[in-house]
Amino acid sequence: MSERIKIAVAGASGRMGREVIRMVLEDDQLQLVAAIARSAGPVDAGSLVGKPGIGIMVVSDLSAALDAARPDVLVDFTSPKSAMPNTETAIAHGVRPIMGTTGFTPEQITELDKQCRDKGIGGLIAPNFSIGAILMMKFSSMAAKYFPHVEIIEYHGDQKLDAPSGTSIKTAEWIAKARQELRQGNPSEEEVIEGARGGYYNGFRIHSVRLPGVFAQQEVIFGAFGQTLKIRHDSFDRAGYMPGVNTAIKKIMSVTGMVYGFEHFLD
Predict the structure, then answer these.
(1) Which pLDDT tens digit goes with each residue over 150-203?
(2) Which residues neighbour 113 within 8 Å (Cβ) at sequence distance 6 or greater?
(3) Is 149 one of the catalytic residues?
């Protein structure tokens, strides 16, 4: 059997981080070599997923962990504030970053692409690892050619830190490539309450809902004379993202440069 891909997980004690650890431990082609969390504590990483005794302790210092473990790949589901410094730290150590954390600007992505190429490694920034969500984006870009009037409503739990979501921004980017900019609504409309019409992007609006009890959903609504078209994707469990993360880990080994969007890893 070929040598296993060595994985470090940042945000290991978080809900997504624990799913990543579980997925890595269950795949014979992958090897967990480091687990990083801001509030580490003396805990074995396996205990986070009910598999104690694997011998990988959760630590708080990312740079030290990468130095000691020398992983091939860092999978990061932390926070927008940590996204850029964590990615740069990984690249500096020659570790391929797979970032499920959102919040990167286009300028930052360009800079990270240069850093990756200078090191001769690949990286991935993915607003969403769900294959269903990627299909939602693809179908929305197809529909936008025929239905240029569109709005996006995205729903997440009230603890999500960024708005709009990375998935909705990525969807908006796809839509914008498929249609000319069209400023929608009545030219004389007035927001009686500021923000009521949502965030403005390329002529259309993105609305962010944040409520307890909600996991992750997104609806793209197209309107035309006498008809509407709605394309919706619902996520109910974090495990649904793991096939995508697994695919990304294995494909990133043969990539050079920073890739933006998991769709580039799908056939």
Answers:
(1) 999 999 999 888 899 989 999 999 999 999 888 888 888 898 998 999 999 999
(2) 123, 257, 258
(3) no
Q: Which of 23, 11, 8 is nearest to 245 (CA)?
A: 23
pTM of full prediction above 0.70: yes
List Cβ neighbours of 124 (8 Å cut-off, separation of 6 or more): 97, 98, 99, 248, 252, 255, 258, 259, 260, 262, 265
User: How does the average pLDDT of the chain come out, rounded?
Assistant: 93
Q: Output the pLDDT for position 266.
A: 84
**Which fold does the domain 5-125+238-265 belong to in CATH?**
Rossmann fold (3.40.50)
156 labelled catalytic? yes
Task: Provide the Cα torsion 114, 115, 117, 120; round to 10°.
Answer: 180
State phi, psi for 264 to the nearest 5 degrees.
Answer: -70, -15
Assigned superfamily of 131-235: Dihydrodipicolinate Reductase; domain 2 (3.30.360.10)
pLDDT value, residue 180: 87
Which pLDDT score, from 0 to 100, does residue 62 have? 96
Q: List Cβ neighbours of 241 (8 Å cut-off, separation of 6 or more).
A: 16, 19, 100, 128, 129, 130, 235
The H or E element spanning position 6 is: strand 5-10
Q: Which of 51, 160, 250, 251 is catalytic?
A: 160
CA angle 225, 221, 240 (to 5 degrees): 155
Give me the phi and psi of 96, to 5 degrees please. -75, 120
Contact, 98 vs 242, CB < 8 A? no
Question: Residues 226-249: what's their mean pLDDT?
Answer: 93
The catalytic residue among 156, 170, 207, 233 is 156
